[in-house]
Amino acid sequence: MSAVTAPTRSTAVRTARRVAWSAGALFWTAFAVLEGVNHGWLAAAFALAFFIAPDLTFLAGLRDAHTTERGQLPARAVPYYNAAHRVLVPFALMIAYAVGPVFWPPIFAGLCGWMAHIALDRALGYGLRGKDGFQKS
């Protein structure tokens, strides 16, 4: 009979984080869809474009892709990828939008899409990259 071992603390913490990011991904996706429904096709288009845009940073390293290992991002693309995948960037822009004089719903819908993308990436286990281009632990 084999012994059942309890998950380690790091496994439990990692799982809890991924569950929390999953909830965040659901929230921001629902918010982006709601903004699109309430404010029309342009807001929906912005939400979709901003949902896709962070991964376009992969194109910055396309020229050097043949020199990398599987799962590695070319060093040239890492700063762009990390900048587009930091939660603080769209969150700070949301705050600026909320207190600023500009009112154009597609901007907010786009920022919701961006937050949804980041949250979904984290929920699926994708995080920021190290200087070498591999996922940070």
Explain what this protein looks like in three dimensions:
Keywords: Membrane, Transmembrane, Transmembrane helix. The chain crosses the membrane at residues 42-62, 83-100. With 137 residues, the protein is mainly alpha-helical. It has one domain. 59% of the residues lie in helices and 0% in strands. It has 5 helices and no strands. The chain has helices at residues 9-39, 41-52, 78-84, 88-99, 105-123. Helix 1 packs antiparallel against helix 2 (41-52) and helix 2 (41-52) runs parallel beside helix 5 (105-123). The protein is globular and about 55 Å long. The protein starts with 8 loop residues before the first helix and ends in a 14-residue tail after the last helix.
Topology, number of strands: 0
Protein structure class? mainly alpha
Q: Beta-strand level of the residues, as a percent range? A: under 5%
Domains, number:
1
Series of H and E elements: HHHHH
Report the end-to-end length measured between terminal Cα atoms.
34 Å
**Whole-number mean pLDDT:** 93
Please give the largest β-sheet: none
Helix content: 55-70%
Q: Point out poorly predicted stretches.
A: none
* Number of contiguous helices: 5
Q: Nearest-angstrom radius of gyration? A: 18 Å
Question: What's a concise summary of this model?
Answer:
The chain contains 5 helices and no strands. The relative contact order is 0.19.
